[in-house]
Specification:
Strand content: 25-35%
Radius of gyration: 12 Å
Low-confidence stretches: none
Mean pLDDT: 81
Shape: globular
Bound molecules: zinc ion
Order of helices and strands: HEEEEE
Number of strands: 5
Length: 63
C-alpha cells in the first residue's frame, strides 16, 4: 500500500498546535494530530488540513 510519504508527515504539522501528524488508513486515509486528536481527510494523497474538514476524535464535552 502506498500511503503517505514519511517526509510529507515531517513537513506538515497540525495547523492548531504544530504537533506531529500520523497517517491512518482505516476506514479511509486520514491524518491525525497526536496532540489535539483532530483528524483530516486525505484526498488523492493530498491532506486537506482545513478547518471545515477537520474532525475531532471525540465530541467536545459540554460546559
Ligand atoms: Zn494538533
Amino acid at each position: 500500500m502506498q500511503g503517505l510519504a514519511p517526509v510529507l508527515l515531517d513537513v506538515l504539522g497540525c495547523p492548531h498546535c504544530k504537533g506531529a501528524l500520523r497517517g491512518s488508513e482505516s476506514p479511509s486515509l486520514r491524518l491525525h494530530c497526536t496532540q489535539c486528536r483532530l483528524s483530516w481527510p486525505v484526498e488523492d494523497g493530498v491532506p486537506r488540513l482545513t478547518p471545515d474538514q477537520e474532525m475531532a476524535k471525540r465530541p467536545a464535552p459540554q460546559g
